[in-house]
Write a structure and sequence with these properties.
43% helix; 6 helices; three-stranded antiparallel sheet; 121 residues; alpha+beta
Amino acid sequence: MLQTEYEFTLPFGFVDDDGTLYREGVMRLSTALDEVEAAQDARGRANDTYLSILLLTRVVTRLGPIAPVSVDVIERLFSVDFVYLQDLFVRLNDVTEDVVETQCPSCGTRFPIDLAQTATA
């Protein structure tokens, strides 16, 4: 079964008007409609950073007891939490393969290589 929702914990957390801190939340995978509607919003067209706010508003389905998560909530996140959610969004929705096929220049044997492991080795 395909997993479409992922729990997360914000590094700092969202503080509501009453001073209550919320760090636990859920993000779902993005759909084509999420991307299209965010791109059609005038605020998103005028500012790439705001496009990220609009996308996160659509895919962050819960933050503590807050559901749905409004634009106002995403706008009021601490920068470190905003960047954390942007990074999580990219990791969850990026389908780029880290494994590529290559070929030995000497013998011509083809084999896969994991670029992620090569970068950390």
